[in-house]
Amino acid sequence: MTDARGWLSMQQAAIVKGDWSPTLARRQGEAKKSRAGTFTEYAEQWMLTRTNRHGEGLRDRTRVEYQRLLNGPLSSFDGLRLNAITPEMVREWYSVQVASGRLTQAARAYGLLKSVLATALEDGRIPTNPCLVRGAQNASTGRKVEPPTSAELAVLVEAITDRYKAAVIISAWGGLRFGELTELRRKDLAVTDDTVIVNVTRAVTHTTGLGFVVGKTKSAAGVRSVMLPPHVSEAVTRHLADHVDDSPDALLFPASDGVTHLAASTFAKHFYPARERAGRPDMPFHALRHYGATKFAQTGATLREIQERIGHSTVAAAMRYQHSAGRDTELARRMSDLAE
What's the topology of domain 2-138? Predict the structure, then answer.
């Protein structure tokens, strides 16, 4: 029943867009005659044995995300034998996904499809990889995350509930991700005089069915020590005194019961009104991380220093923050000075 619904959904979407092809429909129908060696079966087995470059298996959150893509956009291939998937079929499927307007999801789904079929090629299950759409994995909605201004950040901190002020401050000035922030415990902060060092070694994720799962940071580079600027140290130490239990394992920002992890949906109930007050109703929490990275870049930090502070495994993100800081413009001007 699932494969029938997936197939029908794809045909209806293609018809609405005007891209329906009898060739695609016929090949899909013929491939459904047997479940042996189908894409979905192979993909689910692939997830069980897939490893990263460090030889580790997929993390729980990644596995759940892949399953979501298989049940969602990639369900169009459910029931199809691996060798029945053709370049034409993939192109038509991708055009339907792009037409939906969800470009980022389309790119992720295409990336998963291509990876699964690349392994199938290595296993000798298919003669060639049919994923040949140029630029498909790079598609995105193009929504640029705009960090708050310093004035907007000040209003945000002032407006948000007292027990979450330090959460905004640490994310904004330390560049932490939400999952890293909400797994912070008292033992992760080293406080001396006016200095606060945040040691990021873990992160928490929440997925349907698994609940909260504490694990490694997003990448090995995510394990880092971040020194907060001295001017925010007092607010953080005050939070430790007023809102955090004495136990070394006490969460800095727990749920209302003081023990379990803070859900993003719960935090949003406090963050959304505060961002409205700041005049930024569109601002995602992740914009605070961008703020911290950009401010750090404005100090003249090198790409490597930015990369290490924000916990990225590549310099690509660091370059974005450096450009946002206008660092490249300043350096270009200095080059002109040398030419005089």
Answer: DNA polymerase; domain 1 (1.10.150)
